[in-house]
Amino acid sequence: MKTFKYISAFVILLGLSSCRDVVELDVEAAAPELVVNGELSDKENVYVQLQSTAGFFNNDDFEGIENARVSIFEDGQEVVILDESQTVSGRYEANFKGQVNKQYQIRIEIANDAPEKIQGTWLSKLDTLRPVPEIDSVKQATLGRNTTPQAFFEGEYAVMFFGDFVGEGNRYRFKRQLNDSVFAQEAFLISDEDFDGIYFGQGLFPPINVYGPFEDPEPGEEPDSLTITIQSVSIDFENYLNVLLSQVQTGSPFDAPPAMVVGNIYNADDPSRMAFGYFQTIGINRNGLRYQP
């Protein structure tokens, strides 16, 4: 009798596990939204990438927006119209660089054949191209032992020497590139609120450790080459980048809830309508080194 009960229970469980209904959810697709990303600097040619968002269940990449008119305004005057790329859909570029202490804005005009929420004229918030200090040098430094607590390991490191401009309000973003690879999802941002006018690498202030320890190359391979880029950024872009990274660097139950990542592009007819993405106006300087084993 006991065996019969076990068999009956097994048959019931088997039946429950095999009786599954497929539930199809009828989720209304959201209308495509505008995505704008671009950069104007004092060292490199300006570019803008226009795209439209895809549906949640759509695995395709964002679609480029073509046949738009994209122009740059400098101190309130239109100075250049960007050319549409013939090879990258939705990319617009021009042989134009900004000037320090000038104020810039982009204007985007999208035709009526685009999705309804994307049509019309879009503007970026006014932004000033701020000066950026030189990276005087990037040098190789040896750490002869592991630290306690073990924050650093014995080996060869890259350290950066640079000085902040006098006057509070400067914000810098550092980007690292090792050989041909840029470090992804990285926001090395500093503000001079606590170190106005300080030179890193002199007196009480050591140079900033930017990478390490290096790995020795395999036989026949070249040693690693490191490039450091410093950018002058606005407080608005700093806030935008911090919110953006908080959304992509997740995985803990204590993570902040998702938030709308609002950039600096708005609709000219309805400024409360914002596009996704950000158009940066930045000063740039670079320096680097090749690892010496």
Structure summarized in a few sentences:
11% of the residues lie in helices and 38% in strands.
Summarize the structure in words:
- Strands 1, 2, 3, 6, 7, 13, 14, 15, 18 and 20 form a 10-stranded mixed sheet that branches. Strands 4, 5, 8, 9, 10 and 19 form a 6-stranded antiparallel sheet that branches.
- The protein has 2 domains: about 120 residues, Immunoglobulin-like, CATH 2.60.40; about 110 residues.
- With about 290 residues, it is mostly beta strands.
- It is globular and about 65 Å long.
- β6 and β7 form a beta hairpin.
- It is built from 2 helices and 20 strands.
Relative helix content: 10-25%
**Global shape:** globular
Individual helix count: 2
Number of strands: 20
CATH topology of the largest domain: Immunoglobulin-like
Biggest sheet character = 10 strands, mixed
Number of folding domains? 2
Beta percentage is 35-45%
What multimeric state do the chains show?
single chain
Name the CATH class of the largest domain.
Answer: Mainly Beta
Amino-to-carboxy terminus distance = 78 Å
- Rg (C-alpha, Å): 26 Å
| Secondary-structure class | mainly beta
Series of secondary-structure elements, N-terminal to C-terminal:
HEEEEEEEEEEEEEEEEEEHEE
Low-confidence stretches: 1-16
The name of the CATH architecture of the largest domain is: Sandwich
pLDDT averaged over residues: 85
Keywords for this structure?
disordered N terminus; 2 domains; six-stranded antiparallel beta sheet; 293 residues; mainly beta; Immunoglobulin-like; 2 helices; globular; ten-stranded mixed beta sheet
